[in-house]
Amino acid sequence: MIRIILMLGLIISVVGCSSANSNSGPRPHTLSNDPIPKPADIKLVNWGKVEVKQVTISRSQRFGSVNPSVLGTFTKQADIARFVQAFRKAVKIEGKLDIARPEYDLTFATEAGQETFHIWIGLSKGAKGLYTYVADTGTGYTMAAEDTDYLRELIGMMPYTSEQAESNGDVVNVHGKIINSANWTRFLEKMEQGTPSDVQITSYTIEGDPIFQDLFFDGQAIRYTYDNTMDHFGSPNRLTTYCKNLEQEEGRFTLSKCDSEIPSFSFTPNAGG
After folding, report:
1. Where is the YhfM-like domain positioned along the sequence (predicted)?
2. For residue 217, what are the CA distances in angstroms to 122, 156, 199, 212?
3. What's the pTM?
4. Is the pLDDT of residue 106 over 50?
């Protein structure tokens, strides 16, 4: 057995564990040890006048930046109008936020350029959503529950094909056939060197729905996220934990010594060729 042991010098808490049975929306409290950037001077969007041409969604990886791997894009004016409405009606939260890692990154393409945001929409119907500007993650805006429900439905119905996942650089598992396995090897090499790195594994169900497993190595620990919110035949969960060890035995990789019990990680990079 080959074991890669990652030593932790501090106690790390679980990040953003969500339950499909929870009716509460995103809450402004500390659930993450990810560094939150200091707010920059930003110009707030005038939602009554802005003309949005396109909305782009990515699965968020960290505060203060937009994940370039696009999950989906909205170009129909009816869909765009619902996003703009949700943001326009949102109510500013007084005080500074200290909140879990964002669920999605959202980009509005306008005539003047781009406006970028982090958003939280939760998993349960009736939960209020939340957004921040990417450049100011300390100031939050609460979205109405009915608007959040609509956005959750729109995002949840976006297709994410194996071809798109491959193009984004995901390590893709289509019923045992592994694509982009070199990206997994690269992740391991960087981790062994103690260099921060990340990899996204996207597996597909029989029905063709994606299930995401994200591993982010920060130089000390592995942040592992399991996300099956786009599996339309399963119970939606978006769960995160921190793990000390990545172990290999007979070609199969597993995580151990994790902070919490969530769907376990098991990956065989050479399965099915």
Report:
1. 70-155
2. 25, 27, 9, 16
3. 0.82
4. yes
